[in-house]
Predict the structure.
Amino acid sequence: MKGLGLLGKVIYVMNVIVALLLVISFVLPLLPPTTFPTLSLLSLAVSPLILLNIIFTIYWLFRLKKRFLFSFVVLVIAYFHFNPFIEISSEGDTSDYTKTLSVLTYNVHLFNAYEKEPKEQEVMQQFSELLKTENPDIVCIQEFYSDYTTDMSNYPYQFIHFKEAGNKLGHAIFSKYPLINKGGFDFNDSHNNTIYADAIVGGDTIRIYNLHLESLGIQPSVSFLQNRDTEKLKNRISETFVAQEKQIELILNHKSKSPYPAILLGDFNNTPFSYTYRKLKRDMKDAFLKRGNGLGTTYLFDSYPMRIDYILLSRDMDVVKFKTIKNSFSDHYPVTATIGW
């Protein structure tokens, strides 16, 4: 480290540590959380690690030092290993396809039923305007609230599922097309769930899975994390990833027995750098990677952008359009896609 002062040496050591952590993260999508529960936590840090390596690359370039190559090479490998961090895409043409289906997924946060702001009337009006503007054929809702007051008459086929009688928290699929073979998984020891239904679209059958995987159970703020016992917090997140692994095994096993093309959409409660995402995407297309733009942010953790809501589809279908809608009353953004075949 000749030619570097004390500050430069400290920065370089920090750079090496951050780059090596990002390299270690390359194996995370391959490691089951049940086997490596603690190491799986690093998947939540991949996005910040990418940002820090970008900052170090720019810093060394500004200093005209060849040390920029260290983080730069790691970033290039990460870009191709994890999928692009930023997408720039254009819309396709629906006329190129015999049939199309538009879907929208939205974690509505119980329509903010237990929040002071915004008020119920404002929430319901915003939700109605969203449906009117986007006009999706199928709407999948996570954290559905039983006392909702929105007019869903444009969606005559509905499957609303509550895990237990009397529960107000559930999940829902609203459709303009007939729904058959409906059901839910009712995960043990969890408030989360996944439901499914087969949509009959112009004579074709499409299996729809509305996912809401195990939640981290933490508030989206740095101050919340700082005020919690580190060991308990680590155990809580590790347990969440282990629970997700078991949940996706149930879903994928069920999906493997279906003869129909499938769409998996909803709140996965995990990042694109995780084991959870890799397993679910294994033989699927990620709609954002095909037609998305920007970072694809669907959730803000104390203003830090994260992508944890997805639309995945079988490879024999194409993504024609994709959009993340930033106007939201919930802590999540709604995501919509048009699919063609």
Summary: The chain has two domains: 6-82, 94-340.
